[in-house]
Amino acid sequence: MKRSSSVGARRIEPHDVEVGRRIRVRRLERQMSQTELADQLGVTFQQVQKYEKGVNRVGAARLQRIADALDVPISFFFSVGDRGSPQEAIMPFLETAHAVRLMRAYARISDPAVQRSILDLVERIAGRE
Question: Where are the domains of the chain?
Fold first, then answer.
Protein backbone atom coordinates (compact mmCIF):
# COMPACT_ATOMS: atom_id res chain seq x y z
CA MET A 1 0.00 0.00 0.00
CA LYS A 2 1.38 3.35 -1.02
CA ARG A 3 1.59 6.04 1.64
CA SER A 4 0.04 9.36 0.87
CA SER A 5 2.50 12.25 0.67
CA SER A 6 0.85 13.92 3.65
CA VAL A 7 1.27 10.87 5.87
CA GLY A 8 4.44 11.20 7.89
CA ALA A 9 4.86 14.82 6.89
CA ARG A 10 5.18 17.11 9.86
CA ARG A 11 3.96 20.65 10.04
CA ILE A 12 6.18 23.28 11.59
CA GLU A 13 4.52 24.11 14.88
CA PRO A 14 4.71 27.59 16.45
CA HIS A 15 6.11 26.10 19.67
CA ASP A 16 8.99 24.50 17.77
CA VAL A 17 9.77 27.81 16.08
CA GLU A 18 9.71 29.63 19.44
CA VAL A 19 12.03 27.09 21.07
CA GLY A 20 14.39 27.43 18.10
CA ARG A 21 14.29 31.21 18.30
CA ARG A 22 15.22 31.10 21.97
CA ILE A 23 18.08 28.69 21.26
CA ARG A 24 19.44 31.15 18.71
CA VAL A 25 19.05 34.16 21.01
CA ARG A 26 20.87 32.47 23.86
CA ARG A 27 23.59 31.11 21.57
CA LEU A 28 24.23 34.62 20.25
CA GLU A 29 24.25 36.02 23.79
CA ARG A 30 26.96 33.51 24.63
CA GLN A 31 28.91 34.46 21.47
CA MET A 32 28.80 30.83 20.41
CA SER A 33 28.74 29.66 16.81
CA GLN A 34 26.35 27.02 15.55
CA THR A 35 29.36 24.75 15.06
CA GLU A 36 30.49 25.19 18.67
CA LEU A 37 27.04 24.34 19.97
CA ALA A 38 26.78 21.40 17.58
CA ASP A 39 30.13 20.04 18.77
CA GLN A 40 28.94 20.15 22.39
CA LEU A 41 25.76 18.31 21.42
CA GLY A 42 27.38 15.77 19.11
CA VAL A 43 25.37 16.88 16.07
CA THR A 44 26.15 18.81 12.89
CA PHE A 45 25.86 22.58 12.64
CA GLN A 46 23.14 21.97 10.03
CA GLN A 47 21.11 20.21 12.72
CA VAL A 48 21.49 23.24 15.00
CA GLN A 49 20.31 25.43 12.09
CA LYS A 50 17.22 23.25 11.72
CA TYR A 51 16.51 23.47 15.46
CA GLU A 52 16.87 27.24 15.38
CA LYS A 53 14.49 27.56 12.43
CA GLY A 54 11.97 25.23 14.03
CA VAL A 55 12.21 22.84 11.09
CA ASN A 56 13.29 19.98 13.36
CA ARG A 57 11.68 19.43 16.73
CA VAL A 58 14.07 19.25 19.68
CA GLY A 59 13.49 16.21 21.89
CA ALA A 60 13.42 16.59 25.66
CA ALA A 61 16.82 15.00 26.32
CA ARG A 62 18.49 17.05 23.59
CA LEU A 63 16.82 20.23 24.83
CA GLN A 64 18.25 19.58 28.30
CA ARG A 65 21.71 19.21 26.75
CA ILE A 66 21.21 22.47 24.86
CA ALA A 67 20.13 24.20 28.09
CA ASP A 68 23.27 22.88 29.81
CA ALA A 69 25.51 23.99 26.94
CA LEU A 70 23.93 27.46 26.93
CA ASP A 71 23.91 27.69 30.72
CA VAL A 72 20.18 28.30 31.16
CA PRO A 73 17.40 26.35 32.84
CA ILE A 74 15.30 24.32 30.42
CA SER A 75 12.36 26.60 31.27
CA PHE A 76 14.16 29.38 29.34
CA PHE A 77 12.89 27.81 26.12
CA PHE A 78 9.23 28.00 27.05
CA SER A 79 6.85 30.94 27.30
CA VAL A 80 6.12 32.16 30.77
CA GLY A 81 3.21 34.47 31.43
CA ASP A 82 1.54 36.78 28.95
CA ARG A 83 2.77 37.25 25.42
CA GLY A 84 3.02 40.95 26.29
CA SER A 85 5.60 40.42 29.03
CA PRO A 86 8.85 42.41 28.84
CA GLN A 87 10.76 39.20 28.09
CA GLU A 88 8.53 38.43 25.12
CA ALA A 89 8.85 41.98 23.79
CA ILE A 90 12.65 41.89 23.81
CA MET A 91 13.13 38.44 22.26
CA PRO A 92 12.82 39.57 18.60
CA PHE A 93 15.36 42.33 19.26
CA LEU A 94 17.86 39.84 20.65
CA GLU A 95 17.73 37.69 17.53
CA THR A 96 20.32 39.82 15.76
CA ALA A 97 24.03 39.74 16.47
CA HIS A 98 24.13 43.56 16.30
CA ALA A 99 21.57 43.88 19.06
CA VAL A 100 23.48 41.51 21.30
CA ARG A 101 26.71 43.45 20.66
CA LEU A 102 24.93 46.71 21.42
CA MET A 103 23.59 45.39 24.72
CA ARG A 104 26.98 44.01 25.74
CA ALA A 105 28.72 47.29 24.98
CA TYR A 106 26.05 49.29 26.83
CA ALA A 107 26.38 47.01 29.87
CA ARG A 108 30.14 47.71 30.00
CA ILE A 109 29.54 51.46 30.44
CA SER A 110 29.92 52.15 34.14
CA ASP A 111 28.90 55.82 34.14
CA PRO A 112 25.09 56.16 34.57
CA ALA A 113 25.16 59.64 33.00
CA VAL A 114 26.77 58.26 29.84
CA GLN A 115 24.22 55.42 29.75
CA ARG A 116 21.37 57.97 29.98
CA SER A 117 22.95 60.07 27.21
CA ILE A 118 23.17 57.05 24.93
CA LEU A 119 19.58 56.12 25.69
CA ASP A 120 18.44 59.70 24.92
CA LEU A 121 20.36 59.67 21.64
CA VAL A 122 18.91 56.33 20.51
CA GLU A 123 15.37 57.43 21.43
CA ARG A 124 15.81 60.65 19.43
CA ILE A 125 17.10 58.74 16.41
CA ALA A 126 14.27 56.20 16.67
CA GLY A 127 11.70 59.01 16.95
CA ARG A 128 12.72 60.37 13.55
CA GLU A 129 11.77 57.20 11.71
Answer: 14-95
- In terms of Cα–Cα distance, which of 18, 21, 28, 23 is closest to 98? 28
pLDDT at 3 over 60: no
CB atoms < 10 A from the CB of 56, how many? Answer: 19
For the domain made up of 14-95, the CATH class stated in words is: mainly alpha
HSE-CB of 14 using CA atoms within 13 angstroms: 1
Which runs of consecutive H residues, i.e. helices, occur in the chain? 14-29, 34-41, 45-53, 60-70, 86-90, 97-108, 112-128
Residues 27-84 have pLDDT tens digits of 988 889 999 999 999 999 999 999 999 999 999 999 999 999 999 999 888 865 545 4
Give the integer Cα–Cα distance in Å for 77 and 86: 15
